[in-house]
Amino acid sequence: MLRIGPIELPFPVVQAALSGYSDAAMRMVARAHGCPYAIHEVVLDRLLIQPSKLHRKIFFVPEQDHPVAGQIMGADPVEFGQAAAVMAEVFDVIDINFGCPVRKVLGRCRGGFLLSEPHTAVEIIRRVRDAVPTPKPVTVKMRRGMDDSVESERNFFRILDAAIEIGVAAVTVHGRTVEQRYVGPSRWPFLAQVKRHVGDFPILGSGDLFTADDIVRMLAETNVDGVTVARGCIGNPWIFQEARALLAGEPQPEPPSVAEQGRVIRQHFEYAEQTEGPKMASRLMRKFGIKYSELHPSGQTVRDAFVRTRNRDDWMTVLDRWYDPAVDWPPGVRKHGPGDLVAAGACG
């Protein structure tokens, strides 16, 4: 059980906010595989305040896609609060991004940069909490600091303690620094340190969760209340049901068969068409096809086929050829690590 304010989740593993990925289509696929809670890809506060063509996509939340969080990124406390009020009209939880390490974001004093400006970070949290209706949870996503300096760690705990005092419902901590971006290991002992520091307050861990075994190990080693899976679930929604089995003391399911992979990819494509239309869905789904191909026994060939797709007919041709349920395919492949991942996809 994981509790985020009044929201009770029966399973402590959630899908993280993933820039360019965690739209309604990806979230729906994750839910079908046991994910109880997901976070929309991060949205810049100004896009929420001002009229935008993106509003339709941002606020498209199917009835079965709840509970769901909307994640916001920005630099100005006033605009942050205004954006939170708008997003709270649709989303069940408002999540504040203090974790994105992308250079363009840092250069505009957003995301992880705010870990170096605790006064501004705390004011943002206060403005958001004041703007969001009281029953609705506010959460924060952080990295363990800008760098490995003592001052950076001091700033981290200053922001964390203030967030709890202000009334946030939970905090997610990524075990890398902003300076690290996605290079080097996530420091899980720091997550354990944070959990000891806050006591019963809910902490979710993040970083280096690429398999169900990783999920179980992080929960056991750090004592965090839950985990957020980011890059590890792109093209691998089965990670959620695998983790459910392990946490229930059951054997881990076999990797998905090629036929099962094909069924799920088709469903994902259909969800994408509902939100984007056939033309745009064909383009946006290529990056997912590349990730899904890693589970196929002929992964490189299938990857190349997905890269060449240009329209819906191309997609159906690839699925008919490489995921034909009538073919006696070798067993599917299980992922064991980060592989060829696009780091920019996980802005946290």
Question: Can you offer a commentary on this structure?
Answer:
The chain has 348 residues and is α/β, with parallel strands linked by helices. It folds into two domains: 251 residues, TIM Barrel, CATH 3.20.20.70; 65 residues, Non-ribosomal Peptide Synthetase Peptidyl Carrier Protein, Chain A (Orthogonal Bundle), CATH 1.10.1200. 43% of the residues lie in helices and 13% in strands. The protein contains 15 helices and eleven strands. The strands form two sheets. Strands 3, 4, 5, 6, 7, 8, 9, 10 and 11 form a nine-stranded parallel sheet that branches. It has a two-stranded antiparallel ribbon with strand order 1-2. α6 runs parallel beside α7. About 1% of the residues have low confidence.
| Number of helices, counting only DSSP H or I runs of 4 residues or more | 15
Question: Can you name the CATH architecture of the largest domain?
Answer: Alpha-Beta Barrel
Domains (count): 2
Say which CATH homologous superfamily of the largest domain is assigned: Aldolase class I
Low-confidence stretches: 340-344
Strand fraction band? 5-15%
The first-to-last residue Cα distance is 24 Å
| Total count of strands | 11
Q: Biggest β-sheet: count, sense, barrel?
A: 9 strands, parallel
* General form: globular
Taking all Cα atoms into account, the compactness measure Rg is 20 Å
Tell me the CATH topology of the largest domain. Answer: TIM Barrel
Question: What's the overall average pLDDT, rounded?
Answer: 94
Assign the CATH class of the largest domain: Alpha Beta
Order of helix and strand elements from N to C terminus: EEEHEEHHEHEHHEHEHEHEHHHHHH
